[in-house]
Amino acid sequence: MSTVGILGGGQLARMLALAGAPLGLQFLVVDNEPSACASQVAPLLRADYRDFVALEEFAKRIDVATFDFENVPAETAQWLTEHTRVFPNPRALAVAQDRLEEKTLFHSLGLETPAFAAVDSRIDIETAVAKVGFPAVLKTRRLGYDGKGQYRLRSAADLDPAWAALGGVPLILEAWIAFEREVSVIAVRAQDGEFRTYPLTQNWHADGILSMSLAPAPQVENLSASAFAHARAVAEKLDYVGVFALELFVVDGKLLGNEMAPRVHNSGHWTIEGTACSQFENHVRAVLGLPLGDTTAIGSSVMFNWIGSLPDARPVLAESRAHWHDYGKTSRAGRKVGHATLCAADNIEMSRRLARVARALDREAQAAPVLEALQR
Ligand code: ATP
Ligand code: MG
Ligand code: MG
Per the database record, which ranges form the ATP-grasp domain (predicted)? Predict the structure, then answer.
């Protein structure tokens, strides 16, 4: 029986462990938070990511290491490769951890991005604005997630407050894109280079946090092939093994690269019930060198993200082909505490199911853009 070690004990680790259990796999999660939600379903090794004594014990107890948390220090990932197998590799992790490196890589592979410029000082913002224009968004190059570490710039009056809010660490200024929509590629690459993608997913964010996903994304005939080719090019360039997400903006029918996540991704949660082999199972298969599973969508899926606190599960559970995920976390503003996935045979059945659930949960505003996309 193989043991998969996971750095980070959040809901992604939890869903990886749940997906691997039927395969007879064991898991060991490293997190310094004793109440990490993955610890409810897998053993926890309580340690800091720089505690190399504990990491040595971790490496001894596992067959392969992977990540739930994308910001594990590069030094730790590198150290681990000297003690166990590690997927994705530390270089892939390092590139994905830095918005400047990531966007530079996208460009080198022919994937356009919003205009951007590095910002390391207050003066740099002026130069960057001259290049990128308004509106723009100043972001920390590293450690941002769920829209944290970002400041929107509408005019020169915003430069000082933006610098006051974020200055002091390496930053990037990006053009703010009035996109038509956002999509993501969830892809998996095996150790032998086999590459598979799930159907393109359309995503809606609220306050920088993923709110809803719809898969397969409607009307993407002209986008899918090029989105998948970009994902493949990134994976091959980084010799990536495992599941990753490529977040894209669609503007004037063209794709722009926003960022990649070097791990299973929130916009792929629908694959648990919406495909034969979820992103979580495929990630585990890839890091263990097992054959990859089927990524084809079974009908249509919609995911609601539960941010802050969970609504009442019953209206969802009362619906057929509807699935509830409670991560076992305590409520806190802005925190991802669970999700629900609705599945249906087609977009017409999905529209009815989604409308019923949204009404029962008083989530009509959240679901409205998804219903609109389904009706197009
Ligand atoms: P994640 O939780 O996905 O890792 P993050 O904190 O890394 O998020 P981004 O993905 O860069 O942040 O931004 C979050 C959301 O904010 C995007 O999905 C998009 O909706 C919006 N956004 C970010 N950058 C831009 C941009 N340059 N133009 C328009 N919208 C943007
Ligand atoms: Mg991110
Ligand atoms: Mg993002």
Answer: 103-288
Residues 311-366 have pLDDT tens digits of 999 999 999 999 999 999 999 999 999 999 999 999 999 999 999 999 999 999 99
> Does the annotation list 204 as a binding residue?
no
User: What DSSP letter does each residue of 100-138 carry, written as one string?
Assistant: HHHHHHHHHTT---S-EEEE-SHHHHHHHHHHH-SSEEE
ipTM > 0.90, yes or no: yes
Q: Distance between CA 268 and CA 274 in Å, rounded?
A: 10
Which helix (H) or strand (E) covers residue 246, if one does? strand 242-251
Which residues keep their CB under 5 angstroms from ion ligand 3?
A: 247, 259
Q: Which ligand ends up closest to the CA of 145?
A: 1
Helices vs. strands in the chain: H and E counts, helices first: 13, 18
Distance 243 CA to ligand 1 centre (A): 20
Tokens of 206: 């609220």
Which domains, ranges and CATH numbers included, belong to the chain?
3-86 (3.40.50.20), 115-175 (3.30.1490.20), 181-374 (3.30.470.20)
